[in-house]
Amino acid sequence: MLLEVKHVKKIYQSGPSQTIALRDVDFSLDKGEYVAIMGESGSGKSTLLNLLATFDQASQGSIHLAGQDLAQIKADKVAQFRRDMIGFVFQDFNVLDHLSNRDNILLPLVLNNQKVAQMEARLNELAPLLGIEALLDKYPYQVSGGQRQRIAIARALVAQPDIVLADEPTGALDSKSSRQILDLFIRLNEMGHTLLMVTHSSAAAATANRVLFIKDGIIFHELYRGQATEAD
Ligand code: ADP
Ligand code: ADP
C-alpha cells in the first residue's frame, strides 16, 4: 500500500465559525495506480489533496505515505519529505516567470544539490517524453497554457517522486490542451507512475483507472475503469 488514508477529518476554524471540509475520508492506493477523485466545487477535493501533499494537516484520522505517518514528520523535515516523495501539479501551473522553462523544471534537483550532469541527463530523458524539447530555453510567459502545464508536469516528475498529485490539472486549459494533458497522464501511468488527480471534470476522471466520488467531505462511491460511469 503506497497511500493509506484512514478516517480523515478536516475542520477549518476561523474565529467562532468552523467549516467541516472533510468528514470521514477513507481510501487507499497502490503503487502504479491512476486514481481520480471527482466532485463538485466545495466538496473537499483541494483540502484532501493539500493534506496528502503535506501542505496542511488533518484534524483527525491518519495518512500514511510509503509507510510514513504524515503527522509524525518533524516540521524541519517536511519540505525534504515532500521533495523526495511527491510531485505536485497545480491547476494554474505555479511556474516561476523569471526562470526559464529549463530552470523551472530543474528547480527541485537544484534544491537537492544534484550535479549538473545528472540534471542534464534527467532533462534529456523527460523532454522528449513530454514533447517540450523546443520550449526549454523559453520562459513560461512565452508558451501556451498547455505547454506550461507540460513544463509543470516535468518539474513534478524530475525528482522521481513516489506519487504525483494533481489538482484540477486541466481546469485552466481549453479542451484540446486538456485532452493532451490527459493523454500524457495515461501514458505516464502506463510507464509505471502513480497518479492521483482531483477534478470536477468527468472527461478528466474518465482517464483514470479508478474514480472516487466525493461530496460534502465524504467519498460516497467508487468506480473501476470498464464499469459504466453514472456521471456521463
Ligand atoms: P473543492 O476543492 O472540492 O472545491 P475545497 O476543499 O476547496 O473543495 O473546500 C471544501 C470546503 O472547505 C468548502 O466549504 C470551502 O469553502 C471550505 N474551505 C476550503 N479552504 C478553506 C479555508 N482555508 N478556510 C475555511 N474554509 C475553507
Ligand atoms: P472549451 O470551450 O475549450 O470546450 P470549456 O470552457 O468547456 O472548454 O472547459 C474548459 C475546460 O474545463 C475543459 O477543457 C475541461 O478540461 C474542463 N471542464 C470543465 N468542466 C468540465 C466537465 N463538466 N467535463 C469535462 N471537462 C470539464
TrEMBL record:
Name of one Pfam family that matches: ABC_tran
Organism expressing this protein natively: Eremococcus coleocola ACS-139-V-Col8
Gene3D superfamilies noted in UniProt: P-loop containing nucleotide triphosphate hydrolases (3.40.50.300)
A Gene Ontology biological process term: amino acid transport
RNA-binding keyword on record: no
Residue ranges constituting the ABC transporter domain according to the UniProt record: 3-232
MF-aspect GO terms: ATP binding; ATP hydrolysis activity; transmembrane transporter activity
GO cellular component: membrane protein complex
Annotated protein name in UniProt: ABC transporter, ATP-binding protein
